[in-house]
Design brief:
The chain is an alpha/beta fold and about 180 residues long. It has helices spanning about 50, 55-60, 75-80, 100-110, 130-135, 145-150; strands at about 5-10, 10-15, 15-20, 25, 30, 45, 65-70, 90-95, 115-120, 140, 160, 180. It has an 8-stranded mixed beta sheet. Helix 4 runs parallel beside helix 5 (about 130-135).
């Protein structure tokens, strides 16, 4: 497989593809820096401050095409009361070693009951995908060549036995050890 790249500001950047558990698909969302992008008909992912600066009526009118991206250092509480105005929450992984967005995804699903899309953006690697699925991510912007290759072959990877519950798998079956759960096949 040849590495596909794009030229942006004179630098080579890897191709980014959107993957869901149903497979690769076209991305209908764009990343924008300001609310001016809402003037068109696009589905728009805004930085936290741009989202918070929107007029509440504008948030309500654009709910189906409005998303927000949270960086690891930004607090989930900033949008907790506004989740009904969002269709998508993107959580950033600027480095594979920064796992704060895992906690945010799990809290979005379990504590806040968010049923919209939760997207992983940034440094998503092979070893992380199955864990991200367990905590509630359902979309992934992937640029890692190894992961892209495996997903094209249908190889998700992961472990079949887990010691903790997951946002996506529910409780252990009656009569089994509560600490041992089998992965959903």
């Amino acid at each position: 497989m040849s590495e596909q790249v794009a030229v942006s500001e004179g630098k080579l950047t890897p191709e980014i593809r959107l993957w869901t558990p149903q497979g690769f698909r076209d991305d209908e969302w764009i990343h924008a820096e300001s609310a001016e992008a809402l003037a068109g008909n696009s589905r728009v992912i805004l930085p936290l401050q741009a989202f918070l600066d929107l007029d509440p009526q504008e948030r309500a009118l654009n709910r189906e095409r409005l998303g927000v991206i949270l960086q690891p250092g930004e607090q989930l509480d900033a949008i907790a009361g506004l989740l009904d105005a969002l269709s998508l929450v993107a959580l950033a992984f600027p480095a594979y070693s920064d796992g704060r967005s895992y906690s945010k995804a799990e809290l979005l699903r379990s504590r806040h009951g968010f049923s919209g899309r939760v997207r992983a953006v940034g440094d998503v690697l092979v070893d992380q995908l199955s864990h991200m699925l367990r905590v509630g991510f359902d979309e992934f912007e992937i640029s890692n060549r190894v992961l892209l290759g495996r997903l094209e072959k249908g190889e998700i990877g992961g472990l079949s036995v887990h010691s903790q519950p997951a946002a996506t798998s529910g409780a252990a079956a009656a009569g089994t050890y509560s600490w041992r759960r089998r992965a959903v096949q």
